[in-house]
């Protein structure tokens, strides 16, 4: 085989795809499950480790394939215990994953794209533009290659990118995370965040049982459109109407993400509009303090305003809580991921 031919990755392949690989290189039919076990349960980093495949079988597999695991290229640690990891991404842009320990929980926030097409005004990822989709292997690599991998209890698709804009790869990653031949997680350990692409959301809802988080940030349509262009294509009222058709009262959870800016979307008029939008849904609201980023003229609301907003929602029968901010000192908090080792990102705490 020519040295110039790039080998393909095994990491990120579903059992069905591994079955195709086995057939392609002439392995026995049950080799698909053997490879899956080595990739996802035993977390092999080289084909040579797959010792229940014959030496000849491993050699044939290695002619065209590699495992595809990649270690973080940089990391930063917050004073609150949060860790941010930089990984190779797509289109020449690295991506970031954030590990968030919290008592008995250990959550990893993963990226699904390098950059983002959605162009939300308040998000650093959106401001950098779109560089490329991650494949399922690059998503799963974030889970398997951080030092805290074995201790993870939860996973959130809330990192760089819009998960429904790269849905095939996200669905493949969820399959690997939740199937017995993969990591065997319960779907209840996984949350996918979305701005509300209705056709893609419908597929996500039908094909998985993961929790759903919707980025709302303003329930007044004209105002939301000014900071989130997606409102023009898929109005948030239509998103909520779609969600009303699914059961979120039992195992599956629905949450609404609401970043609060001082003097913009933090008064009782906005709280009432949000309560009207969500009335009759089995959803909860996460109120998030805005984290300042370059190029967006917004300031975080003070805690008393956030508490009044929360109380107004609770009084209207909408469960609302204030999410604790984590990792702001290393640019790892909500809306701050940029996928770069440049100033004000990963090297901030090391200077």
Describe the structure.
The protein is of the alpha/beta class and 351 residues long. Helices cover 31% and strands 20% of the residues. The strands form 3 sheets. A 10-stranded mixed beta sheet has the order 3-4-5-6-9-10-11-12-13-14, with helices on one face. It is elongated, with a radius of gyration of 21 Å.
Sequence of strands across the biggest β-sheet: 3-4-5-6-9-10-11-12-13-14
Q: Roughly how much helix do the residues carry, as a percent range?
A: 25-40%
Percent of residues in β-strands:
15-25%
* Rg calc: 21 Å
**Class computed from helices, strands and strand pairing:** alpha/beta
Order of helices and strands: EHHHEEEEEEHEHEHEHEHHHEHEHE
Mean pLDDT: 91
Shape: elongated
Tell me how many strands there are: 14
Low-confidence stretches: 342-351
What is the assembly state of the chains in this entry? single chain
Largest sheet: 10 strands, mixed
Total DSSP helices: 12
- End-to-end C-alpha gap: 46 Å
């Amino acid at each position: 085989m020519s040295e110039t031919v790039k080998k393909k990755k095994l990491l990120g392949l579903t059992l069905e795809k591994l079955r195709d690989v086995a057939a392609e290189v002439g392995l026995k039919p049950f080799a698909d499950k053997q490879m899956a076990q080595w990739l996802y349960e035993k977390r092999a980093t080289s084909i040579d480790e797959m010792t229940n495949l014959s030496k000849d079988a491993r050699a044939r597999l290695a002619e065209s394939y590699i495992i595809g695991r990649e270690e973080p290229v940089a990391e930063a640690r917050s004073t609150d215990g949060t860790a941010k990891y930089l990984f190779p991404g797509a289109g020449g842009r690295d991506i970031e994953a954030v590990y968030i320990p919290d008592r008995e929980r250990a959550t990893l926030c993963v990226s699904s794209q390098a950059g983002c097409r959605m162009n939300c005004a308040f998000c650093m990822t959106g401001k950098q533009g779109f560089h490329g989709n991650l494949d399922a292997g690059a998503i799963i690599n974030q889970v398997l290659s951080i030092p805290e991998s074995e201790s993870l209890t939860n996973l959130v698709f809330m990192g760089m990118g819009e998960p429904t804009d790269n849905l095939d790869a996200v669905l493949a990653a969820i399959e690997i995370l939740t199937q017995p031949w993969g990591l065997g997680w319960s779907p209840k350990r996984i949350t996918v965040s979305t701005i509300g692409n209705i056709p893609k959301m419908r597929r996500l809802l039908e094909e998985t049982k993961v929790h759903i988080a919707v980025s709302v940030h303003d329930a007044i349509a004209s105002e939301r459109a000014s900071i989130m262009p997606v409102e023009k294509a898929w109005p948030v009222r239509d998103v909520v109407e779609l969600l009303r058709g699914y059961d979120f009262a039992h195992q599956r959870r629905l949450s609404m993400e609401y970043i609060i800016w001082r003097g913009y979307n933090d008064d009782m008029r906005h709280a009432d509009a949000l309560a009207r939008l969500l009335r009759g849904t089995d959803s909860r609201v996460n109120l998030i303090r805005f984290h300042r980023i370059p190029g967006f003229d917004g300031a975080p609301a003070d805690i008393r305003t956030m508490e009044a907003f929360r109380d107004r929602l609770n009084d209207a029968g909408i469960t609302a809580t204030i999410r604790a901010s984590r990792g702001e000192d290393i640019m790892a908090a909500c809306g701050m991921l940029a996928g770069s080792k440049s100033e004000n990102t990963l090297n901030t705490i090391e200077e």
